[in-house]
Design a protein that fits this description.
Largest sheet: 5 strands, antiparallel
Shape: globular
Number of strands: 5
Low-confidence stretches: none
Number of domains: 1
Strand order of the largest sheet: 1-2-3-5-4
Distance between the termini: 36 Å
Order of helices and strands: EEEEEH
Helix content: 10-25%
Number of helices: 1
Length: about 90
Amino acid sequence: MNEVESDTYRTKDGKAFFSFSFFKEDEFYDINVTFAPSELDLINKTEFCVPSKKDGFLIIYEQKARDIFTAKLIAGAWAEKIWKECILN
């Protein structure tokens, strides 16, 4: 499993940044969060992610990506979802 690409995502409200690494595993991409705002406390957000064998956390999302474009879209949607969850709690 080799890192294919890294990317940074800024939430729509402009208040949070996330960094992701994308790894091709067989026909799908694994998406790791390598940076997230500290107030999210990802270690306790097991419904959203799990510790990765690589750096960071492997995101949990119902859709799988077969290409890097879709993987980046999923990463952005995941970031928005977890950020809204943080703001509402």
